[in-house]
Amino acid sequence: MTTFLPQSCLKQLARVPLSKGTRVSLAQFSRAQPTQCFSTTPRAQSRVGAAPISIPPEVSLKFIDLPQTTARGASQNQPKTAIEVNGPLGQQTLNIPPFLNVAHDENLRKASLSIEDSTVAHQRAMWGTTRALLQNTILGVSEGHICILSLVGVGYRATIESTASTVEAEYPGQQFVSLKAGYSHPIELGIPKGVKASTPQPTRILLEGNDKQVVTQFAAEIREWRRPEPYKGKGIFVNGETIKLKAKKIR
Question: Does this model's pTM top 0.85?
């Protein structure tokens, strides 16, 4: 197999002193060359992770030391600290990675995050992620998270029922979302604990809760029964979701 080298590599190879009859493989040449970084800009702080978080007056943060396991094979990223967030809408706990430091200023009502080593890619990646999770947790216990689902289609309807015939209740007092979405039978889905569902209109479902992950996951499960299709534009849309219609296939 013939390998073609760039012109810059050929010029560098021509300057290497070799004796007569010596062969240099491409792998040996690449190992001998120092790695070159294409970006000349220095590493900057995370724009998301370095931004401070504003804490409402009705929300309180409590730092909890987690017990450490010394079992064989324990991960180095095992969290050592957890933050307990209390607010008028409930309480949530968020685990913090061991390489992240959270500074809480009670007078200014702000929290800022920092990492130990900015040269580690994993730490930089989790910096902004953890900051977003903490922001969503504080927002959830103070204001809450909502998801609005729109049912688009002829005969598509949704109701909230106290009982169901196809699924069993997972906890006392659980309610169920009953969908009519073009199937020969109604679809019944149990509402997760901590989520409040209502139907202000027959074609609208409003989900409310303090845990964003639980609310959006349940919305995704409902949407999965009738994903928006691109020919007639029918389906279950979440939070103003849109879809580009395709042209009809005419033979």
Answer: no
